[in-house]
């Protein structure tokens, strides 16, 4: 088993950097369904480009490399203690090599362990089986989509859908509601795993296990196969679209499992996974620890470059079929006047400087001064993957994080420091919208998960504050060139997110009538 640790390292690197072929096919199919030139189609093109870049750079597809979760099946007699040690060392090494972001945070002190090891991380499940080889599967499910997991206890009364009973139709309603409540915040278009039954713990486990199924498999249970097809067809009618920008594709896959329950409980647990659906697996020789076989088809089998689509987009642009879109280049510091000219739907390209800030920083800034002058500046909700060598720090992966978590603070912080633009993903709420209007600021939506694509825009790391918060939470001062994002909340009270949410709730209500009797 002396090769086992190396095999685990390879598994981690492949999972983090190379999206498997079945997931790529689903993203390509979504791209083909969206009308060329729309926001959804352009976002999917960025996602596709990012997938290629990650493979080529052998760098994380998304900066949030998630909760490393290993599921190991091994023959009787295999040394689980040694395997666990090897997995932990491989995780540590992959973190050091910037293939994983340091993601293990002390829940009470906020201290980042720096190497992805800590109580509860990584997650390793062992199961014995009667085969000769070891099967190791890994899923890297990010925190933003994890926050969108949801568990229903039936019977329930669901927004838009009314009563959901303890039957297949009630389950149908829960799953549709789960997709609706995620909006674009889990980086749609997403995949969902559903667990019917169990208790609160095993129900969620079953839901997550479904995410190890192949995208194109067929559920052996005919009733569940029918439910999966129904959900996939109909969830896409909600019109939430990629990143919640509106569009024809919201869901890329739905897998449902079932287990027994207690008479008093009826849980429907839903695990939501973003498009950056990073899971791989290997069959390992139990004597040597070497990889014998990869379980999911490799990413390179399905290239993401779509020349036909790009030509069609260019043609659509020439013939004026494209959505109305203005592109405005802004140099920081930005003035109120420049901001007041922006409207929802505009594409803004930022040059100059950007400062990252997420949960720890926002909490801190509420009752402290900022370490730099933020007047006219841009805050980027981002927890990057960084590396350091003799030339200093380098940005390795830097997509946006879910902005809604900063909703309690953002409006006050914008006003207190004179910030003119906030970049993130998934949109923000009414309090921030009001502050944008009062102060003269905008919310810009970047494409979630496109961490390689945005990392290229950061030309220099000019400094860092609050390293004590850990790498993802520190305030990085970055020199930026050509960072493009879409205005989704402007300084005139408009919010694309509020519009899409309202429209999708209306559509959700169309699924109120029973389907499975
Ligand atoms: O932590 C992050 O970088 C992003 C997170 O996965 C999110 O989706 O908000
Ligand atoms: S940022 Fe988006 S793509 Fe990345 S882990 Fe979070 S939900 Fe997934």
TrEMBL record:
Belongs to the class-I fumarase family. Its EC number is 4.2.1.2. Coiled coil: none annotated. SUPFAM superfamilies: FumA C-terminal domain-like (SSF117457). Homodimer. InterPro entries: Fe-S_hydro-lyase_TtdA-typ_cat (IPR004646), Fe-S_hydro-lyase_TtdB-typ_cat (IPR004647), Fe-S_hydroAse_TtdB_cat_sf (IPR036660), Fe_dep_fumarate_hydratase (IPR011167). This is Fumarate hydratase class I. It catalyses: (S)-malate = fumarate + H2O. It is an enzyme of class 4 (lyase). Residues 104-115 have a biased composition (Polar residues). Residues 94-119 are annotated as: Disordered. Gene3D superfamilies: Fe-S hydro-lyase, tartrate dehydratase beta-type, catalytic domain (3.20.130.10). Keywords: 4Fe-4S, Iron, Iron-sulfur, Lyase, Metal-binding. Residues 6-280 form the Fe-S hydro-lyase tartrate dehydratase alpha-type catalytic domain. Catalyzes the reversible hydration of fumarate to (S)-malate. Its cofactor is [4Fe-4S] cluster. The keyword Transmembrane helix does not apply. The keyword Metal-binding applies. Residues 317-499 form the Fe-S hydro-lyase tartrate dehydratase beta-type catalytic domain.
């Amino acid at each position: 088993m002396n090769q086992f640790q190396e095999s685990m390292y390879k598994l981690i690197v492949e999972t983090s950097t190379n999206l498997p072929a079945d997931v790529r096919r689903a993203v390509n199919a979504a791209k083909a369904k969206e009308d060329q030139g729309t926001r959804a189609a352009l976002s999917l093109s960025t996602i596709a480009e990012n997938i290629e870049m990650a493979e080529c750079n052998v760098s994380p597809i998304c900066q949030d490399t998630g909760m490393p979760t290993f599921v190991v099946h091994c023959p009787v007699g295999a040394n689980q203690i040694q395997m666990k040690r090897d997995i932990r060392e491989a995780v540590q090494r992959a973190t050091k090599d910037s293939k994983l972001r340091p993601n293990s945070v002390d829940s009470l002190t906020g201290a980042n362990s720096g190497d992805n090891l800590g109580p509860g991380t990584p997650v390793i499940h062992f199961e014995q089986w009667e085969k000769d080889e070891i099967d190791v599967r890994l899923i890297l499910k990010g925190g933003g989509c994890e926050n969108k997991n949801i568990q229903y206890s039936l019977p329930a009364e669901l927004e838009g859908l009314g009563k959901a009973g303890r039957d297949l139709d009630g389950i149908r309603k829960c799953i549709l509601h789960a997709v609706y409540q995620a909006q674009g915040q889990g980086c749609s278009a997403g995949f969902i795993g559903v667990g019917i039954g169990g208790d609160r713990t095993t129900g969620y486990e079953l839901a997550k296990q479904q995410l190890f199924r192949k995208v194109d498999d067929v559920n052996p249970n005919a009733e569940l196969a029918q439910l999966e097809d129904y959900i996939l067809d109909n969830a896409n009618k909600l019109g939430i679209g990629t990143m919640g920008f509106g569009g024809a594709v919201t869901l890329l896959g739905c897998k449902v499992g079932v287990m027994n329950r207690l008479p008093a409980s009826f849980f429907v647990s839903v695990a939501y996974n973003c498009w950056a659906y990073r899971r791989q697996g290997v069959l390992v020789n139990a004597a040597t620890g070497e990889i014998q076989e990869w379980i999911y088809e490799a990413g390179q089998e399905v290239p993401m470059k779509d020349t036909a689509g790009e030509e069609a987009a260019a043609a659509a642009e020439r013939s004026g079929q494209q959505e109305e879109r203005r592109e405005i280049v802004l140099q920081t510091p930005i003035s109120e006047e420049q901001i007041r000219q922006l409207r929802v739907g505009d594409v803004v390209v930022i040059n100059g400087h950007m400062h990252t800030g997420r949960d720890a920083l926002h909490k801190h800034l509420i009752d402290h001064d900022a370490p730099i002058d933020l007047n006219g500046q841009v805050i980027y909700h981002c927890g990057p993957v960084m590396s350091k060598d003799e030339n200093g720090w380098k940005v390795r992966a830097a997509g946006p994080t879910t902005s809604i978590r900063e909703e309690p603070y953002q409006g006050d912080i914008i006003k207190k420091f004179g910030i003119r633009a906030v970049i993130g993903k998934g949109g923000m709420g009414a309090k921030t919208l009001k502050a944008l209007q009062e102060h003269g600021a905008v919310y810009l939506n970047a494409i979630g998960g496109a961490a390689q694509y945005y990392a290229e825009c950061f030309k220099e790391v000019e400094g860092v504050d609050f390293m004590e918060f850990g790498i993802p939470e520190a305030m990085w001062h970055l020199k930026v060139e050509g960072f493009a994002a879409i205005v989704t909340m402007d300084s005139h009270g408009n919010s694309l997110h509020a519009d899409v949410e309202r429209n999708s709730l209306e559509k959700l209500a169309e699924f109120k009538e029973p389907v499975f009797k």
